[in-house]
Amino acid sequence: MKALQTDYDVVIVGGGVNGTGIAMDAAGRGLKVLLCEMNDLASATSSNSSKLIHGGLRYLEHYEFRLVRKALAEREALLKNSPHIMWPMRFRLPYREHLRPAWMIRTGLFLYDHLAKRELLPGSRSIRFDADSPLKPEITRGFEYSDGWVDDARLVVLTALKAQECGATILTRTKCVHAERGNDQWRVTLENTTNGTTRTISARTIVNASGPWVSRLFSDAFSMPAPRMIRMVKGSHIVVPRLNKDTEAYILQNEDDRIVFVIPYEDHFSLIGTTDVEYEGDPRKATISTDETDYLLDIVNAHFKHQLTTKDVVWSYSGVRPLMDDEQQPAQKASRDYSFEVDASDENAPVISVFGGKITTYRKLAEAATDKLCQFFPKTGPAWTRNAVLPGGDFTDQIDLSAQLKSRWPWLPEELLNRYVRTYGTRTHQVVNGATDLESLGRRFTGNLYQNEVDYLVSGEWAITAEDILWRRTKQGLYATAEDVGELASYLKLSTGVSAEPVSEAEE
């Protein structure tokens, strides 16, 4: 474990979107911050979402107007701050007889358009589907509205980078194994999970942002009862060859009132999900079931001309969402809002625990959690992240940036250049790193993944294993053979000195 200072204002446990968001905000306000994550950044819930920045149209049916308004307001702020990893997307809702009356859907879309101010995104409209539509011919009408796309794992990594730029210490593969509470500070024992070494530090506060482990951390490391238990709900997705040639996504509503998205994904694929299934057990071992796969395929086949089978599934993933709703509600109706539990008194150092949340409101959650932290640190600075541009996001338009980079490196293949733009933005310069032709990008491992990019991810983005690179920093795992994965793992072992089993996320 690298040399660390020993005294911090706050230790944050959990390297998902909430933990990194709080680390960024708190460090930017002047606090001495350490974040520890027992695996890789975004290795659990935060990399297994539907990849959407959205208000949650379906939440209107559950009367969660406050959550929808909050998410809609955040949507545009995030799109402005991260134009490389987030962008607007139009969603088409096919109208079928089992749905709500058309007037009711139009009313819901009107609310969706007007609950919060829109600057970047166009409003909703009614549409007609013609013979060129990918949908079945009997589906002739529908609706269209705006939301946004996000590369969720990239969002976490870039937020961690921003936190580091603000002075935070980010430790991956580092587990909080014990925390002893005193009157004015915590004594925290950290274990490096790659070599087993430990180090003890002190912190005036702890933030428990460990997602599905938020309740369990109290018994495992804090030796105290959890303030509340969370409810774990598994959401699964499948990836298939591209179903529609256009850029629009589709939102499909089944007879059971469940929603499934069909989203353009990584140029050549469609992402289909999600499910909502009650889950017990280790969140790291969550995988899609046969029933979930069949459910998703059946919904898509009820709408699209091209009929899918299980043989079309090229990848699947599952994530466990820690929800704070009671068990009286069905999983799909459980709230995606967030809350905090603050345990503090004159006799005990504070601990703040984060429950629930969704990617779209992660910045707002982080701001609210940091506000609570600042109650214990009166000399901290003001909230600042609403207009905070994430690393690589200092441009306004992907097309313009692509043109600029193409003029500088005309030898870069278009598909590779476009992937660099939507992954690294202006940091593409650091990835190319002086290369003058395709050959000088170094060894090609798979797809369009070259050695320069791998080296950048190892040196600058905490990547250690093949899985880190193939599935979280990039999605080049979609093209990798078992031999490709093994060769990349061998190269990384030489680069990092860490040996890890080359496992794809689809097999976890």
Automatic annotation (TrEMBL):
Q: Which UniProt keywords apply?
A: FAD, Flavoprotein, Oxidoreductase
Q: What is its EC number?
A: 1.1.5.3
Question: Do the record's keywords include Transferase?
Answer: no
**Which Pfam family, any one of them, does this sequence belong to?**
DAO_C
The entry assigns this protein to a family as follows: Belongs to the FAD-dependent glycerol-3-phosphate dehydrogenase family.
Any one Gene Ontology molecular-function term assigned to this protein's record: glycerol-3-phosphate dehydrogenase (quinone) activity
- A GO CC annotation given for this chain: glycerol-3-phosphate dehydrogenase (FAD) complex
Q: Which gene encodes it?
A: glpD
According to UniProt, the name of this protein is Glycerol-3-phosphate dehydrogenase
Q: Which residues form the FAD dependent oxidoreductase domain?
A: 9-330
Which PROSITE patterns does this one have? FAD_G3PDH_1, FAD_G3PDH_2
Oxidoreductase found in the keyword field: yes
- InterPro entries referenced in this protein's UniProt entry, alphabetically: DAO_C, DAO_C_sf, FAD-dep_OxRdtase, FAD/NAD-bd_sf, G3P_DH_FAD-dep
* SUPFAM superfamilies from the UniProt entry: FAD-linked reductases, C-terminal domain, FAD/NAD(P)-binding domain
The coenzyme or cofactor needed here is: FAD
Q: Name one GO biological process term.
A: glycerol-3-phosphate catabolic process
